[in-house]
Amino acid sequence: MIPEIGQFALALALGTALVQSVLPMLGAARGNALWMRSARSSSITQLVFIGIAFAALMHAFVVSDFTVANVVENSHSLKPMLYKIAGTWGSHEGSLLLWVLILAAFGAGVALFGSNIPDALKARTLSVQAWISTGFLSFLLLTSNPFERVFPPPFDGNDLNPLLQDVGLAMHPPLLYFGYVGFSIVFSFAVAALIEGRIDAAWARWVRPWTLAAWMSLTAGIALGSWWAYYELGWGGWWFWDPVENVSFMPWLLGTALLHSAIVTEKRDAFKSWTILLAILTFSLSLLGTFIVRSGLLTSVHAFAVDPERGLYILGLLGVSIGGSLTLYAWRAPAMDGGGLFTPVSREAGLLINNLLLATATGTVLFGTLYPLFMEALSGDKVSVGSPFFNATFIPMMLPLVVMMGIGPFLSWKRADLKGVFQRLRFVAVLAGLAGLATWYVARGGPVLAYLSVAIAVWLLIASLREWFVRIRLLDVPLLEAMRRARNLPRAAHGMTLAHAGLAIAMLGFIGSSAWKSEEIVFVQPGSVIKIAGFDARFDGVERVRGPNYIADRGALTISREGEFVTTLYPERRSYPVAQSTTTESAIRSTLAGDLYASLAEPSSETAADQGAWTLRILYEPLVNLIWIGAAMLFLGGGLSLSDRRLRVGAPRRASRSEPVATPAE
Amino acid sequence: MKRAVAALPILIALVFGAFFLWGLNPDRDPNAIPSVLITQSAPDFDLPAIEGVDVPGLSRRDLTGSAEPVLVNVFASWCVPCRAEHAVLTRMVERDGVRLFGINYKDKPEDARAWLENLGNPYERIGSDLNGRAGIEWGISGVPETFIVAGDGTVLYRYVGPVVGAEAEEKFATALAQARTWKGGNP
Fold first, then answer.
1. pTM of the model as a whole
2. Domain residues of chain A, as ranges?
3. Assigned architecture for domain A1-160
4. Chain B, 125-164: which have a CB under 8 Å from a chain A CB?
5. Beta-carbon separation of B23 and A377 below 8 A
6. pLDDT tens per residue, range A291-328
7. Is B27 in the A-facing interface, judged by CB distances under 8 Å?
């Protein structure tokens, strides 16, 4: 019964979305206020219906209702409750349902909290949002019904892929989707603005909180995913340039560009058509990600079960949404530009460079990700593009970007005093250079690029802090006065400092763990001692232990340093009899200085396992935790900026075009 | 000029779309990786027999010399799909008279022995690859995998995964028929 309610609710949501696609848009065109306001109730109704459907599916998972095909395929009665719940979005159908739920949530969010947005723009935006949900709801109902029944019901389920049974991963899809799909509302705002043919500073201000919220979730989602890969997959890496990782990274890169270009649109009324284009492309890349993950277009470690028919349907949706919006752009954008003028040395110019670098980097990742497909189509050759390509192209673009990030905040709008900026940064440059040299002194033998990168990361860190000090005039005025200034500073300013510093910290983590990583893969027998990065690891053998739905071989490693006991690590290899697969559970000793990481690979052979011989992989990854600390700072920085008074109170009513928009004190 | 620039994104998107449409062709398998061994000579290896099994071990010499192509199947008793594939292989040997050789990959001799006693032994020779060395030489990515090797020792075809199910068996049979008519050059 409950699954049928879910399905019925989905059908009702589709009906609501259809009405919402048409009525508010017509209302905005004819100036009918009633029709325009219908968007508010229909957005909320849609959310409620999809919420009911989602709750119905979750209920089926929680009570292990094995008459529902989706539950059979992705759950098992013995699975811990958390993973039963997470199973709701573990499959193609369930995750798509989550997708439309978040889509509807953003629509309803604008309907509820966007009271400062003019009626016409809001009505059009919500109609566009309903176009997207119509597309995806019909996709869900026509090709991927999550509530399909099986008869006769089996006694138990097939279990969720054990690799996915992990707390980090249970939370990863919702956060990632929140980010991905969150950009939908920005897209809808952009399309609505194109239809209206007007975009101004106020528009940028209305869009900004939604962009920030989506960007924050995407940041958290990507960081969580890479953390999961790091400790669950047992490869000791945190980023593999896998196509599915890349498709989540591209919207992040472009979304970051969008965040910055929207600032220029908001403060200086410039970059308008560029901001619109970024809004469209960011969501287009999210859609592309959904398409690639679900169509089997590229080979990847984590794709959903593949069905070409589904792929064709999503490609159709992509064609309509991306093709339609870009055609609209080609038609309307040329009439739109203009706005504030600026000199080559100004904050606008700095942000322009930032945008160009981010967009080029996105293009590079896109090209590298799709290159195997292009090659196969054109010449029939199978190639794979891996880290060497991305490292060689992406890093050289990011380093100048980071250098610019240090300078940018010091530049003033319109025209900046380059000499003054250099005077302020001279000291920072010296410190950064010293940091590079100090690294070379402490840890020789790394690549030259690594020392340069350390210097650049330190440059960004100190420059960001220095800029903050300058703003609150720390060291110039008495401490109390500086604290008062800090309190009065807009939260967005604190947010920027925190986020920029976070990137610097994360970058130190990237560099440390890739340039100075040590790795040993060895055959061990009880009593073997492995030396790595100053540690001695003694292998004490393997014992068999039982978990709730798995059996594990647990190894024990006694770690000591210069004869002193440090810790004992217990890496495991779990086998899940129901799902018929095995996972590695790495054991990690985490410190700020670095992680000692052990994982048990397969026994060197079946006979060897009897004699206690195993393949063991030990890694030392210096500074790796800084990556996630930095990511957390990026997230919090975004949050601070989101809580800025300017965004909470909302923009003034749409200013007339000639009137310059008040710029908050910097 | 401005119009042309504004139209650029949609033009690029259309080109991408065309590639995607091509990529959705259901016959295309992005995971299929052609083996580098194809058209190359089979790797050199020499494996002992499984203790207690009455067929001899396997080395590269044993693959050559016959006029017909032979099959080399990599299997293990711990591999569940191998069990399903076993029936298909047995049928090929008994019905079609194919010569089948086995590489028993990282398997305990007693388990392999019990498995063969239980299911029957269609293999003419089986090499016991305890440490997986021969598996590396052959470049296998998992178990089972089946190779078609010509009489002169040239590897003609590689099938990854179990040859089970109508589609897979037909694909394999086609490859085998082609291998029978092979006279050198690219298969």
1. 0.82
2. 1-160, 518-624
3. Up-down Bundle (1.20)
4. 130-132
5. yes
6. 887 776 766 555 555 566 778 888 999 999 999 999 99
7. no
